[in-house]
Amino acid sequence: MNIETIGDVVAWSSKFHSNLAGFIEASVASSTDERAKMLSGYIADHERQLAKTVAAFDHVESENALGTWCTEFLNQQPLPDTSTKDERWASFSAIELMDEVREIHGQLIALFSHLLSRCGATPAADMLEQLVELEEHQLMLMAHSANRLEDL
């Protein structure tokens, strides 16, 4: 996908969350750690819901926000790849799985935060601020649930 505008970032982010759900499920499917399998299912469901939430930005935000150009950062930072299954994930414990998910979401938060820092007071800034808050909040919910799973 060629990402040039904030609207492209929103579309990419929605697709990324959807792909991440499938990636996690496929990568952890052969795990012998039942907690990791349970957590992967929870995270995958959460990622699918997050994909729908992010996709909604494309319908409610103004063209001024979505049309803002953002190629400078994206040319310097590779985006996480979840296009193929990673067998390494099948050996992860629930804690390691959550650490990997936390790292991936951290990259997305860094992307949105950087773009936000470049926008000034524009409609795109408001939307990016909402995306940062959404990512941070959803990551917090997933981490909280992972911690409760560990308490069992």
Based on secondary structure, the structural category is mainly alpha
Radius of gyration: 16 Å
Average pLDDT level: 81
Any idea how many domains? 1
CATH T-level topology: Ferritin
- The low-pLDDT segments are none
CATH H-level superfamily: Ferritin, core subunit, four-helix bundle
Total beta strand runs: 0
Which CATH class applies here? Answer: Mainly Alpha
Tell me the helix content. Answer: over 70%
- Count of individual helical segments: 6
Strand content: under 5%
* Biggest pleated-sheet summary: none
H/E topology pattern: HHHHHH
User: What is the CATH architecture descriptor?
Assistant: Up-down Bundle
Global shape: elongated
Query: How far apart, in Å, are the first and last alpha carbons?
Result: 41 Å
Descriptive account of the structure:
With 152 residues, this protein is mainly α. The protein has one domain (6-151): Ferritin, core subunit, four-helix bundle (Ferritin), CATH 1.20.1260.10. It is 76% helix and 0% strand. It has helices spanning 6-28, 34-60, 63-66, 71-76, 94-119, 123-151. It is elongated. It starts with 5 loop residues before the first helix and ends with a helix.
Give the helix/strand layout:
Elements: H1 6-28, H2 34-60, H3 63-66, H4 71-76, H5 94-119, H6 123-151
Helix pairs in contact: 1-2, 2-5, 2-6, 5-6
In short:
The protein is an all-alpha fold. It is 76% helix and 0% strand. The protein has 6 helices and no strands.
